[in-house]
Model the fold of this input.
Amino acid sequence: MAQLSPGQSSERPIRALSEVLSWDPLADLAWRAASEAAAFLHTQRPMDLSVETKSTPTDVVTSMDKAAEHLLQERLIGERPGDGLLGEEGTDRPSETGIRWVVDPLDGTVNYLYRIPHWGVSVAAEDQDLGETVVGVVITPESGEGFVGIRGRGAWQVTGDLAERLRVRECSDLGQAMVATGFGYAQERRRNQAEVLRTLITSVRDIRRTGCAVADFAWIAQGRTDAYYERGLNPWDVAAGLLIAQEAGAVVSDLGGGSGPGTFLVSVPGVARELEELLVEAGIHRPESAGEFQG
Done:
């Protein structure tokens, strides 16, 4: 039997995946579409990827990112033609139904490019009348892990046909907290992030940088880490992952004030306030030069 992480319980509810997906009419479609995109990226990667750059020479997009977004659009809008869709690779379709899908077809593109087995697909459904995400799915194919969040019904890790309820682990000592973060692509942002990290690293157990934001949110929900913060996150980076983390009991702080790409802290409750104060003191809000905002 696998050893439990500190603060985790062996009494986690397990349900049939079909039951969990039946709790919201959008959940089954989100799961099917994300699963198909994940399988496509995992099995159809060409030996020689076509690569372009976006905001900086190190911010890349591949032909597979674009193909996966097209696949997601075909599946989601094909079944619900009145819905909107926002995607990282440029899709921005208005909604006629009040539902908007927010998708990251391939988060962790640089990992994917270098064959580092840590990247994921993210699909979320926003109810624009409620002003919130109601369903979120994250799949990380290389690890064989899938996650579902349904507002008010919990966060679940999927294994085969079963889903296990997730809860964040308990941690009340910041010095024992495992903290994840990410870095932007622009030089000015990276300099600022390095300064924040220099202050933070002496106050926590350790730092992890995975290069895949959607997985960072899932790791909080699983109890693998105690916190994750990053500046410069876009709606497709956070839509599904934030819901999954929240439904597992994480505390979410929008440190960016809701304008432009976001600065988020997601943490177990026991260290949330202290960590937020430390990040602010370390300069996470430090102004950036014009043109350097894209993360």
Q: What stands out?
A: Residues 192 and 218 are 26 Å apart (CA to CA). The helical segments are 17-21, 27-43, 63-79, 109-113, 187-200, 213-222, 235-247, 272-282. The chain has two domains: 14-165, 174-282. The two ends are 41 Å apart (CA to CA).
